[in-house]
Amino acid sequence: MPKLYLRIYLAVLASLAAFALASGFLWRQLGDAGPAGHAFEVAGTLAQNVLPPAGAPPSEQQAALDKLAANLRADVALFAADRTRLAAVGDSLPAPDTGRDRGGWLHPWAGPPAGAIHLPDGRSRACRATAGIRASACSSCSR
Questions:
Q1: What is the reported pTM?
Q2: Residue 106 lies in a domain
Q3: Any idea what the CATH number is for the domain that residue 90 is in?
Q4: Which residues contact 85 (CB under 8 A, 6 or more apart)?
Q5: Has residue 74 got a pLDDT over 70?
Q6: All residues at 6 or more sequence positions from 62 whose CB lies less than 8 Å from its CB, including other chains
Q7: Which of the residues 63, 72, 77, 115 could staple to 93 if both were Cys, CB 3.0 to 4.6 A apart?
Q8: What pLDDT score does 20 carry?
Q9: Can you tell me the distance from the alpha carbon of 83 to that of 95, in angstroms, rounded to the nearest whole number?
Q10: Which pLDDT tens digit goes with each residue over 43-57?
Q11: Is the alpha carbon torsion for 62, 68, 70, 76 positive or negative?
């Protein structure tokens, strides 16, 4: 039977780990995005001002996305409100989650990180820096 001090020590460690996990989960779900959240909103509004309306033909949206992604050296995709791909430049990107009401990182554990920005009209734009570029080089996608 383990000694009492060891059992107490392990109980304290387990309670600290449980508190850290619960705090992180609540912060992520309920916390304010702060200045970074405002930056995502501004980037979404700027992208919407440059892109054609949501009901524009796919060829017009593709041309606008090509112009927007020029010289970014990044994979960029535009998604409709129902998560269908409207236009893309570069490699395929995952569609942003519908449950999120603000932009942020997309699946950073599955390859290079990708940023998502929700546009005010319901569309979403995702961006990922291509190989050899640091993630911060895709600043127009995530800041």
A1: 0.63
A2: yes
A3: 3.30.450
A4: 77, 78, 79, 95
A5: yes
A6: 86, 87, 88
A7: 77
A8: 95
A9: 6
A10: 777 788 888 888 888
A11: negative
Task: Tell me the residue length of the chain.
Answer: 143
What's the alpha-carbon Rg for the chain, to the nearest Å? 20
**Residue whose C-alpha is closest to residue 41's, from 113, 99, 118:** 118
Q: Would you state the pLDDT for residue 90?
A: 86
What are the DSSP calls for the chain, one per residue? ---HHHHHHHHHHHHHHHHHHHHHHHHHHHS--HHHHHHHHHHHHHHHHHSPPTTS-HHHHHHHHHHHHTT--EEEEEE-TTS-EEEEESS--PPPPSS-SS-EEE-TTSSS-EEEEE-TTS-EEEEEEPTTS-GGGGHHHH-
Residues 58, 72, 40, 64: what is their CA dihedral angle, to the nearest 10 degrees?
-20
Q: How many domains does the chain have?
A: 1
Question: 107 versus 23: which is more confidently predicted?
Answer: 23
What are residue 115's DSSP bridge partners?
105, 127
In a domain, residue 123? The reply is: yes
Tokens in use for 114?
Answer: 């990708």
Residue 137 belongs to what domain range? Answer: 35-142
